[in-house]
């Protein structure tokens, strides 16, 4: 397993993982109609733009399997809620279902934290759907609940939880 910074040519692989992982992670949580409408092509365009023109302090990492195929990604940058310097946000972590529970998420988190510390970030937070099994992963890493908010996905309303690490050096990875 290789973890590295993403390049613009990775957009298609990231888009495929993004859509596939949503369909498995949120099956039975988010409506099938919504999940069936997710488009790899639409996500591909978004990821291509994101990787071609990143904002300062942001980054995307990918995990490649032994065949060189992208099987996971992690996206991070400045905290979008506060915009404060030194406060980072984990925007997304997704792995194909077949690659989960193998330590890949932890390895990507470890590399992200190293990059954040080198860039002067002090704290980290992530918004995660309450029904997402990853809530337990983040709590195991020491994330503490900071806030909750309601969001709409399709025609449904969900609760998102903000988990926070005041000191990224204390992330238990």
Automatic annotation (TrEMBL):
Keywords: Acyltransferase, Transferase. The keyword Iron does not apply. Pfam families: Acetyltransf_1. The keyword Cell inner membrane does not apply. Residues 1-172 form the N-acetyltransferase domain. Transmembrane segments: none annotated. PANTHER family: AMINOALKYLPHOSPHONATE N-ACETYLTRANSFERASE-RELATED-RELATED (PTHR43877). This is GNAT family N-acetyltransferase. It comes from Saccharibacillus alkalitolerans.
